[in-house]
UniProtKB/TrEMBL annotation:
<protein>
    <recommendedName>
        <fullName>CRISPR-associated endoribonuclease Cas2</fullName>
        <ecNumber>3.1.-.-</ecNumber>
    </recommendedName>
</protein>
<keyword id="KW-0540">Nuclease</keyword>
<keyword id="KW-0051">Antiviral defense</keyword>
<dbReference type="InterPro" id="IPR019199">
    <property type="entry name" value="Virulence_VapD/CRISPR_Cas2"/>
</dbReference>
<dbReference type="Pfam" id="PF09827">
    <property type="entry name" value="CRISPR_Cas2"/>
</dbReference>
<dbReference type="GO" id="GO:0046872">
    <property type="term" value="F:metal ion binding"/>
</dbReference>
<comment type="function">
    <text>CRISPR (clustered regularly interspaced short palindromic repeat), is an adaptive immune system that provides protection against mobile genetic elements (viruses, transposable elements and conjugative plasmids). CRISPR clusters contain sequences complementary to antecedent mobile elements and target invading nucleic acids. CRISPR clusters are transcribed and processed into CRISPR RNA (crRNA). Functions as a ssRNA-specific endoribonuclease. Involved in the integration of spacer DNA into the CRISPR cassette.</text>
</comment>
<comment type="subunit">
    <text>Homodimer, forms a heterotetramer with a Cas1 homodimer.</text>
</comment>
<dbReference type="GO" id="GO:0043571">
    <property type="term" value="P:maintenance of CRISPR repeat elements"/>
</dbReference>
<feature type="binding site">
    <location>
        <position position="8"/>
    </location>
    <ligand>
        <name>Mg(2+)</name>
    </ligand>
</feature>
<dbReference type="InterPro" id="IPR021127">
    <property type="entry name" value="CRISPR_associated_Cas2"/>
</dbReference>
<keyword id="KW-0460">Magnesium</keyword>
<dbReference type="GO" id="GO:0004521">
    <property type="term" value="F:RNA endonuclease activity"/>
</dbReference>
<dbReference type="GO" id="GO:0016787">
    <property type="term" value="F:hydrolase activity"/>
</dbReference>
<dbReference type="GO" id="GO:0051607">
    <property type="term" value="P:defense response to virus"/>
</dbReference>
<keyword id="KW-0378">Hydrolase</keyword>
<comment type="similarity">
    <text>Belongs to the CRISPR-associated endoribonuclease Cas2 protein family.</text>
</comment>
Amino acid sequence: MLVWVIYDIADDPIRKKVSDKCKNYGLYRVQKSVFLGDLNANQRDSLAIECEDLIDPEVDSVYIFPMDDESFRKVKLIGQAFDKELVSDEVLTTFF
């Protein structure tokens, strides 16, 4: 299932660690603090736990939003858009 990971983290080193976690799970960076990609439920839960261990919940936030394919097709891209095909199953399979 596609997931959006969106975070607001005050500390640069912690922000970098969360970013690295997202990359390690194969997520595609959409914006500086926004990642998108395909994770199964176990991966999604593991990423959430790992991020929770890194951040300061008093000042930081990490949102992990699951999204079904039908909703993803309805995403409106305005301005400098990310490559929707890059995060779709079709293009990802060509890289692996």
